[in-house]
Amino acid sequence: MDPRNRENDGAGLLTDPVRNPQSAPPHTRTKRAFILLLLTLVLPGSAQVVAGNRRLGRRALQVTFTVWALVIAALVLAMTNRIMLVNLVTNGWTSFALMVLLGLLAVGWALLFLNTLRIIRPPLLERRMRPVIAGLLALLVVGTSGGLAYSAYMLNVGRHAVGSIFASGPSLDPVDGRYNFMLMGGDAGEDRTGLRPDSMSVISVDAKTGKSITFSLPRNFQNAPFPADSPLAEVYPDGYNCGDECILNSLYQTVMENYPDLYPGSADPGAEAMMDAASGILDLEVQAYVIVDMEGFSKLIDAMGGITIDVGGWVPITAGEIPGTNRHYPPDGWIAPGTQKMDGYTALWYARSREFVTDYHRIARQQCVQQAMVAQLDPATLLTRFQAIASAGEQIVKTDLPQDQLGSFLDLALKAKGQPMERLTIGPPDFGTAADNFVTYPDFDQIHARVAGMISGQAAEPEPAAPAEAPAEEAPAEEAPADDSGAPAPETGTDTGADIGTETGELADPGAGAAEQPEITQEYLQYLAEIQDDATLGTLLSNNGNCSPG
Question: Which residue in 122, 243, 266, 491 could disulfide with 220, CB within 3.0 to 4.6 Å?
Fold first, then answer.
């Protein structure tokens, strides 16, 4: 008697086609093979219980039911406390344990399928059915064990990315019910000394609802004050006010070169200094920073599969600087108006271009890019492109956000996705005009009142802006020099509107003067750039900050 049949009672069971298929007709053997494969797929171990090694089957079923219980517990936790679930998955030790568990389950399931194939006894099948069963088994092994193995691999990718990007430190507590993060986009090319954050904003998030406000800080902002508890308050007791050399985006490198000892134990003294300056400007306690390398920014957009933006007006893709001048060659290309799906290269230039317009147009476009990324980084995109997104983020993002609090921040991000993000630029058009140099001589009482009003939901009405002069009456000054990377150099505090086609620096009404304008085409704009008609270009492009996420 076959040893596997020792547990059977009665001679009648010897002819049972489930355990003894040799006595069954061909069609029954085929049906039995499909059923056993289905049992191993749906309830691993059950095929062994009914037709093979029952001891092995019982142990496999115990593992199966335990895994089901864990999955059900995870689903319940996802519905009741998803923050805890994310923290468990992103924690170094628990994620490692989960990765090992997934690997073991992948191997075990594959071995069960092979054991099921032995129970099926392929030589007893009709010749034409043998490749069908073998092919089906291969597909099931790839779909089950392969899926678990790939999940373990992706979890390891995520573990590495999280460990590389996020800091290990104490959790942050909300301040007055809000989290305040500073987001900086910087270029640190070979032709630059250190990092220069050309894009700066503070994102203030309600800790309960996720409702967010973005406060954008112009890079040429001057006289930034420092909170009393900042070490820079003693160095600059009257604020960062050494003239045109002390525009806001120069503070990072100034501290890195001259005052790194003021922030002992900090991994990035320059970022700490920028947070102190932002805190003083906005009268908010900025708690953490995120730095995104702008050259690598395009990789993240590509990893997401692109972003969709309602562009507004035409935006030039700036060419290199003409040697010996402070001008650029005619643009290398143009980003057309309308709703567009942008790849990384296009989105990068859309966010950084400021030729022929103001830095405030660029700030508005950067805000649109940020909003589009938040809106379009949905769970489906994250799951299907996780490896590329994690790899890109690991290369371009640096932050001091604590890893152990990642779950609560992701939960806030999910809440924020369903709500509009308010925006305020600490400069034109929300404060003053380029003509009155608000960013050079800011009214901090006015700024603090507006910021506090927006946070409380009772924002004060902005003061009326000074009347704008007609753009065509005076040609704009030359654009600020740019480095070889194509990124314009920072403006000084006295030339806020120097590279614009309007005197005020305000974002113009896209419909203004439309009746007098000729048809605007890429060829026409390129022609104006070639003949250096910056005044007309400034007028035609004055609506390229009127954008929105697509």
Answer: 491
Cis peptide before 131 (omega within 30 of 0): no
As given in the structure block, the two tokens for residue 108 are: 């075990």
Residue appearing with tokens 């990789």? 299
- Beta bridge partners, 425, equal 216
- Of 73-87, 109-123, 342-356, 363-377, the least confident: 363-377
Looking at residue 372, its amino acid is A
User: Is residue 388 within 8 Å of 395, Cβ to Cβ?
Assistant: no
Neighbours of 12 (CB within 10 A): 8
Residue 482 has pLDDT above 70, yes or no: no
Compute the distance between CA of residue 183 and CA of residue 186 in angstroms, rounded to an integer: 10
Lowest mean pLDDT among 25-29, 198-202, 478-482: 478-482
What is the fold of 178-549? Answer: Aminopeptidase (3.40.630)
Q: Where are the domains of the chain?
A: 3-165, 178-549
Crossing angle between the packed helical segments 359-376 and 406-417, to the nearest 10 degrees: 100
User: Is residue 356 within 8 Å of 499, Cβ to Cβ?
Assistant: yes
Percent of the chain that is helix, strand, coil (3-state, to 5): 50, 10, 35
- Given the DSSP bridges, would you call strands 339-342 and 212-217 parallel, antiparallel or unpaired? unpaired
Residue whose pair of structure tokens reads 């708690």 in the numeric block: 287
Q: Is the dihedral of CA 229, 231, 232, 237 positive or negative?
A: positive
In angstroms, the CA 28 to CA 315 distance is: 70
Q: In what order do the strands lie in the sheet with 548-549?
A: 339-342, 307-310, 548-549
Strands 315-317 and 422-425: unpaired
